[in-house]
Design a protein that fits this description.
A: 115 residues, mainly alpha, 9% strand, B: 604 residues, alpha+beta, Heat Shock Protein 90, 5-stranded mixed sheet, 3-stranded antiparallel sheet, 6% strand
Chain lengths: 115, 604
């Protein structure tokens, strides 16, 4: 546990999300969802939203966003859900169904090592 | 006494005639006879002579008679006059005699009268003198008696009064002594009570601060949404308890809460203030300010804002929103809090103004339930905030708080290794670095609905589609550039076990994959970074800037009072191992920067 008094931002987590701790039923995000920004940040946005939009100019996983923001994943998901509901980010789910057979993977591995 | 009439004082002509006539007759007859007897020849001359003689005779006789008669008259007159003179003399003698007699008589009378009056006057005088003497004796006696009586009474009275006064003085002295003792005792008790309260408040603050840190750590650790909801609830309650402890500490003159080691952006100030009140969900923030409050004053400003917001939220209907506007003016930053609740009357406004003016430093005006304004007053006096009240256009009360320029540190002061409040760890992009203290806004400021905020559509400017531009320049050397910009949280985060966020730190020695790049590219970038390190990272300005920040922070801490918080004093043994001093940074750049958090060293 961190030392007392070293919690280094005065913002409490519930003030970031207006007191919400759940991201709602239609939340498309899980830990590995890739998030892509759909627009530039505009002035007057919450600073976390701005940071997320800057970060997700290239596709970024939810867990990575959470780590960069130094926020719990649940809180990050709520923020992302807000942006998603506003159409400012879109979510791309990794296509887990497309995992090919081990042979292909092996070839990929060989190719990677040859890089 | 009249003069006697003079009897024929002058003989009348007839009497003379009576004398002259017989004489004439007789002479005429004698002359006639003598002439007749005389011879004729002598007759005529004779006759003439004789006639003349006769006439002469007649005149002589008449004259003689007349003279005799005159002499007789004169004698008679003389006689009369003499008699008259004698009479007069006699009269005079008589009158003189009478006058003398009168004088004698009057003198005698006057003598007599004078004697009588003298006797009378003497008697009267004697009588009066006697009466006066008697009166005087009587009065003297009376005066003596009265004087004696009064003197005795006065003596008695004076003795009585003196005795009474002595008694009174003794009583008052005793009373004063007792009161002084009571005052001394009361002062001592008050000082002790205040000190005890301040001490207790300080411990409460430390507990709350520690608990908030623990809760934050737990929130990071538990990903279960139910647990997180409970933790957030506890977090909120603890923050409110901490605010109460802060209030008591401020009122008892203890040092206020915690101290921030770096400037805190306005967004974080407002959020920190919101997080400490019960009705924070009703607060709507409209702010595009990127000002930041200096670290030593941030806690005070936050606390004062929290009290103002709490007032606004408590005194407005439970569904009404409280709007907060931030405006930058030359004198500083004005934060205005507008509610639509109770309208304060003129008297209340004045009373509130007086309460927040910080003039009444005593604890006498406190009522048990209304600490907020007094706390704001103390904090205003301490940090030079100016708070004013006015009726709000929203129907409630508006509070303006001016945060003066001298406790602000503008965005320029917040660059460097400590990005302000935004916990973004993306300083590699030059574009974002300047706008790191991003203007904040509540997610849904404009529409006033009480619904769940998650369903609110954004109301900002329309979404500008991302141009598919390449990443900004500098991303290729990102690992190099981010080296001197360590994340501020890293120093203490590493103390806590299992904080997953820190595994992404730049100096863990593992290859780090950037977003959208392959692992091999990351490896190459790392090699490049190592090659570039000696020239890039440990610049002299960097170390100088750190030293300047360090000294300014120490000054701020010293100026504000006896610095170190009690609860943090038991931490230092763990500290030097994890955080070497910042001045050694140039020697071991790649490792020290991970810990280079100078402010962190000073506060622990």
């Amino acid at each position: 546990m961190s030392r007392p008094g070293r919690d280094d931002a005065p913002d409490r987590l519930y003030t970031l999300t207006q007191g919400r701790s759940r991201s709602g039923p239609g939340n498309p995000f899980d830990l590995v969802t890739l998030v892509v920004a759909e627009c530039e940040p505009v002035p007057g946005m919450q600073s976390e939203h701005t940071a997320i939009l800057r970060m997700t100019e290239a596709p970024t996983a939810v867990v990575e966003i959470a780590a960069e923001l130094r926020l719990p994943v649940s809180i990050t998901k709520i923020l992302l859900a807000d942006l998603h509901a506003a159409g400012r980010v879109s979510a791309r789910h990794p296509r887990t169904a497309a995992v090919p057979d081990p042979e292909t993977l092996e070839q990929v591995l060989v190719g990677l090592r040859n890089l | 006494m009249t003069a006697p009439a003079r009897p024929d004082a002058r003989p009348a002509p007839r009497a003379l005639m009576a004398v002259a006539l017989p004489c004439a007759v007789v002479s005429a007859l004698a002359v006639g006879g003598a002439v007749a007897a005389a011879p004729s020849s002598v007759r005529v001359p004779f006759a003439l002579g004789a006639s003349a003689a006769a006439i002469l005779l007649c005149v002589a006789v008449t004259a003689a008679v007349h003279a005799v008669r005159g002499e007789r008259t004169t004698r008679r007159l003389l006689e009369a006059a003499r008699a008259e003179a004698d009479g007069l003399a006699r009269d005079r003698a008589r009158v003189t005699e009478r006058a003398r007699e009168d004088q004698e008589r009057l003198r005698a009378e006057a003598e007599h009268e004078r004697a009588r009056l003298l006797a009378e006057f003497d008697g009267e005088r004697r009588r009066l003198a006697d009466g006066f003497e008697q009166e005087r004796r009587q009065l003297t006696g009376d005066f003596e008696r009265e004087s004696k009586r009064l003197t005795e009474g006065f003596e008695q009275e004076r003795a009585g009064l003196a005795e009474q006064r002595a008694r009174e003085v003794a009583r008052l002295t005793e009373e004063a002594t007792r009161l002084r003792e009571r005052l001394d005792r009361a002062s001592g008790e008050r000082a002790a009570a205040v000190a005890a309260t301040a001490n207790a408040a300080g411990r409460m603050q430390a507990l709350a601060t520690g608990m908030l840190a623990d809760l934050r750590a737990m929130e990071e650790r538990h990903s279960d949404e139910n647990v997180l909801a409970d933790l957030l609830h506890l977090d909120h309650r603890t923050a409110q308890a901490g605010r109460l402890a802060d209030s008591v500490a401020v009122l008892t003159g203890a040092r206020s809460g915690r101290r921030w080691a770096r400037p805190i952006g306005m967004e974080s100030i407002l959020r920190g203030a919101m997080g400490r009140i019960a009705g924070y969900q009703r607060v709507r923030v409209h702010s595009v300010s990127d000002a930041a409050v200096a670290g030593h004053a941030a806690e005070g400003v936050m606390h004062a804002l929290a009290e103002i917001l709490d007032n606004a939220a408590n005194f407005s209907p439970p569904t009404a929103e409280v709007h907060v506007y931030v405006e930058e003016v030359p004198a500083g930053v004005i934060v205005s809090v507008e509610d639509s609740g109770l309208v304060m009357g003129e008297v209340q406004l004045r009373r509130a103004e007086r309460a927040v003016s910080g003039e009444s430093a005593g604890l006498g005006g406190l009522t048990g339930t209304r600490l907020g304004l007094a706390v704001v007053g103390r904090l205003s006096a301490k940090y030079g905030l100016k708070v004013s009240f006015r009726p709000s256009a929203r129907g409630g009360t508006g509070v303006l708080m001016l945060v003066p320029q001298d406790i602000l540190s503008g965005p320029s002061a917040t660059d460097g290794p400590t990005p302000v409040a935004a916990p973004s760890a993306t300083p590699t992009r030059t574009g974002t670095l300047s706008s790191t203290p991003v203007p904040i806004e509540a997610p849904s400021p404009a529409p006033s609905r009480s619904g769940a905020p998650s369903t609110e559509p954004p109301t900002g400017p329309p979404c500008t589609p991302l141009s598919s531009s390449p990443p900004p320049p500098g991303i290729g050397s990102g690992d190099v550039d981010r080296e001197p910009l360590p994340a501020p949280e890293s120093a203490d985060r590493e103390d806590g076990p299992g904080t997953p966020a820190d595994s992404a730190g730049p100096d863990t020695g593992l290859p780090r994959r950037r977003r959208g790049r392959t692992l091999a590219a990351a490896e190459r970038a790392r090699a490049t970074a190592r090659a570039a390190e000696p020239r890039a990272t440990p610049s002299a300005e960097d170390a100088k800037a750190r030293a300047a920040r360090f000294s300014s922070f120490r000054q701020a801490v010293r100026a504000a009072g006896p610095a170190p918080e009690a609860p943090r004093d038991d931490a230092p043994p763990a500290d030097p191992t994890t955080a070497p001093p910042a001045e050694t940074a140039p020697d071991h750049p790649s490792h020290s920067h991970a810990h280079a958090h100078p402010e962190g060293d000073t506060t622990s």
